[in-house]
Specification:
single chain; alpha+beta; 3 strands; about 60% strand; elongated; Dodecin domain-containing protein; Dodecin-like_sf; Dodecin
Length: about 70
């Protein structure tokens, strides 16, 4: 039986929510191994005038504990 753990990570990008999600997984993988999945819990953005300047995601990352 595998033991799984979930952590919550906040990440951002100037490009897109998809890129922000990739950044979350990339940063988490620096200290967490055996990542199994990423669940996008929430998406927000920063607006300046009529432009979106930053995309933000709240990601739940699931990984296997050895």
């Amino acid at each position: 039986m595998a033991v799984l753990k979930v952590i919550e990570v906040l990440a951002n990008s100037n490009q897109s929510w998809e890129d922000a999600a990739r950044n979350a997984v990339k940063e988490a993988s620096k200290s967490v191994k055996n990542i199994r999945s990423a669940y996008i819990n929430e998406q927000t953005c920063v607006v300046n005038g009529d432009n979106i300047t930053q995309f933000r995601v709240n990601v739940k990352i699931t990984f296997e504990v050895n």
